[in-house]
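From the methods appendix. Each design record in this collection lists the tokenized structure first, followed by the designed amino acid sequence. Records were kept in a plain field format so they could be parsed without special tools. The example shown here is representative of the layout used throughout.

RECORD:
FOLD TOKENS (257 positions):
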């Protein structure tokens, strides 16, 4: 009986350690990386980020790109495999987070890169983000493909195009059009001078307000749709479930029958 109790106690400790991230999962090994990259007539910044938080901020008087990253891993070996690279090709600057090969890590280990990038506000961005929250503000134009995590977008000088698999989307202050495709998570869009197009939303509510042109929802599978203060038309082509509410639409309202 004593042996059984001892084994049970050890098993319980093991579960507690794993649930708290202690068992080979703590991000105990860290490294700080910071550098500047000259723009050199760059028209587009391509950013590819893996696990970790991503923040991109456009600044008015900036003429270079400032990269700051906090790298952490559960082992020194994993940490050595983490990096942030930059490469200039023609008029495109590519910034990418690098991770070690899968052969040296497993599900009990942890690693991530929290990345902050300061860019000129006139920059156009093409971002691919795999996991973790993404915050982007004050750039000229944005295309974002995101797999998982919350998205926060603010003050974009041109068009915004987002394709998201999981996580809420918040967009405020866009001088151009907004084009969205979302698989899971709520959508909140405000203060758009152009058109708002929601190509598909599989689950989660859609809230849109203060739009200078049209609002078009092509397909909404689940969740409510709330729209207000639209200078153009409001159209929903297909809605499977959830209520549709609208207020102060200047143009024509077209809803599925």
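DESIGN:
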């Amino acid at each position: 009986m004593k042996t059984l109790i001892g084994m049970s106690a050890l098993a319980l400790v093991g579960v507690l350690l794993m649930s708290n991230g202690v068992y080979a999962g703590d991000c105990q090994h860290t490294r700080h990386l910071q550098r500047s990259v000259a723009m050199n007539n760059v028209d587009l910044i391509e950013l590819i980020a893996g696990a970790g938080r991503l923040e991109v901020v456009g600044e008015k008087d900036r003429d270079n790109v400032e990269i700051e990253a906090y790298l952490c891993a559960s082992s020194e070996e994993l940490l050595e495999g983490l990096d942030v690279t930059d490469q200039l090709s023609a008029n495109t600057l590519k910034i990418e987070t690098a991770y070690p090969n899968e052969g040296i890590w497993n599900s009990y280990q942890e690693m991530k890169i929290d990345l902050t990038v300061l860019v000129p506000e006139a920059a156009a961005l093409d971002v691919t983000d795999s996991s973790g929250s993404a915050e982007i503000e004050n750039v000229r134009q944005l295309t974002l493909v995101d797999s998982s995590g919350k998205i926060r977008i603010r003050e974009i000088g041109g068009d915004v195009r987002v394709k998201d698999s999981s996580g809420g989307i918040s967009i405020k202050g866009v001088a151009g059009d907004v084009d969205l495709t979302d698989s899971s998570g709520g959508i909140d869009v405000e203060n758009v001078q152009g058109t708002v197009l929601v190509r598909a939303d599989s689950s989660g509510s859609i809230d849109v307000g203060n739009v200078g042109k049209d609002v078009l929802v092509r397909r909404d599978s689940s969740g409510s749709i709330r729209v207000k203060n639209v200078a153009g038309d409001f159209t929903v082509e297909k809605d499977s479930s959830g209520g549709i509410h609208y207020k102060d639409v200047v143009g024509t309202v077209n809803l599925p029958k």
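APPENDIX NOTE: Residues 24-122 form one domain.
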